[in-house]
Amino acid sequence: MLNAYIGARRPTENQRQELKEQKMAHREMQDLRAPITAASLEFLLERYFRGSKKERTVHVKRVHAVVLPYCQTAHIQYLHQITLQDIEQMVHAHRLGRHLSEKTQKDYFFSMLRLVHALGHPEWEPELRIFYSLPKSTVAGRRLNINRR
After folding, report:
1. 13, 49, 88, 97: most buried, per Cβ within 10 A?
2. What span, in angstroms and rounded, lies between the C-alpha atoms of 128 and 111?
3. d(CA 83, CA 115)
4. What are the E-state strand segments in 59-122?
């Protein structure tokens, strides 16, 4: 602190909060520039969501099953390159490619909604719900419990 300007003022609470948010946004962008791998998806989901380890593991497995094959065939290499249309195609391809019960398909869809929020695009959720033909508010949707920092 010896090199500090003597007449400098301490940052106000608002300035400190803005700096903190800027650093956080920068760190989030660094995470999204990571290549799409099982480890990067797991890190992203674990970082943004609280809950039991068992629940996170289930969501991570579902997201891996949907995202990794699609991104390999579509040549998407980085997390920040995923678009709303890609998410819709992933959900659509997964629904057609497997013979799963309606409940299981919805569980996969809600895991994908977690990914959408982790990617920083909560505004995509209503459109995805319409695409999947779900009502705007469901019991499962209320239990989504998205806890961002």
Report:
1. 49
2. 12
3. 12
4. none
How wide is the angle at C-alpha 112 spanned by C-alphas 108 and 116, nearest 5°?
Answer: 170
Give the contacts of 75 (CB within 8 A, at least 6 positions apart). Answer: none
Beta bridge partners of 78: 35
In DSSP terms, 35 is beta-bridged to: 78
pLDDT in tens, 71-112: 888 888 888 888 888 888 888 877 766 677 888 888 888 888
Terminal-residue alpha carbon distance, the chain: 30
User: Which pair of tokens denotes residue 46?
Assistant: 């674990």
Segment of 4-8, 61-65, 100-104 carrying the highest mean pLDDT:
61-65
Q: Are 91 and 66 in contact, with CB atoms under 8 Å apart?
A: yes
pTM, two decimals, is 0.66
Tokens of 58: 């289930």
Structure tokens at 76: 């998407």
Average pLDDT of the chain, as a whole number = 77
CA torsion 32-36-37-42 (nearest 10°) is 40
The count of residues in the chain is 149
